[in-house]
């Protein structure tokens, strides 16, 4: 499991070239644990968080734990950069700000899309939105900075 | 901050209810310390929580969940019985990578509380709070929607 850092990166770049984004998510243990999946369509990359009882953080509604929602937005952000940008190394997160807009219902799938606001030489700014049944009614949104170089 | 214990949630109640939330339990997050207005949570290192297979570093989402949980507990510890808590927003600054194999501590404190909002800040670290992995700031809505310990019973 512990190859050199370039080999995981090369593996990801190969999968990207082949358009096999769902397989990239499988290289990340935490993704499988919480249930992240990747899909690409005409609008670009789509990140999916499958409904899972073990992701519940609020048993009253019940709703997905805010930490998992934040994790999904971070994951969608980094995957969006890999999808959109010519990168020489794995983007490294600097910070993320998450706004919680509506309850993220626990027994529904959640979807997220990233938008590259600015791609700089060393830092990129990404906006990510997540929704459940209606893309016009986001459950959460984030902006994050990633180190590129 | 109110010091009338009778109008607040009992600390032991907050601890046992938060530790039993499905995702808190799934991640193995435990409360090390819980006081009025502040708390210390811990998450153990586990291979299935890794975000980078080659470095073995935990996924950033694990820190987000640890800090959101700790922040929520700090907020619960100061709001009146019957009030619920919902995260309004949070920000995480990743100061340095977590070390593989080591558990992570998350400290959060409610530094300002109004009728409707609890303002919380904190940090995540391995051995010393003076050598943080991440900084955290969040605000929580205090109100009638969201999660309340009472609703469990």
Automatic annotation (TrEMBL), chain A:
Q: Which regions form coiled coils?
A: none
Occurrences of domain Thioesterase (ranges): 64-137
Q: Which SUPFAM superfamilies match?
A: Thioesterase/thiol ester dehydrase-isomerase
A single MF term (Gene Ontology) = thiolester hydrolase activity
Protein's name in the database: PaaI family thioesterase
Q: Which organism is it from?
A: Sedimenticola selenatireducens
